[in-house]
What does this fold into?
Amino acid sequence: MHFKLIITFSNEHLTDKLLDSSRKSGATGATVINKAHGEGVVKNKKYLV
It folds into this structure.
């Protein structure tokens, strides 16, 4: 078996267009992660919260 992994970051409103394009190009599956955010090892201090 031969696998390929393509990772993309896009705005949420473009997800359907991205998936449609992927399917037309031969993709057989996809995973969509919504509302992702990053965080460092040590949280930043917040001021004026």
Remarks:
- The chain has one helix and no strands.
- The chain has a mean pLDDT of 86.
- The longest helix spans residues 15-24.
- Residues 21 and 27 are 9 Å apart (CA to CA).
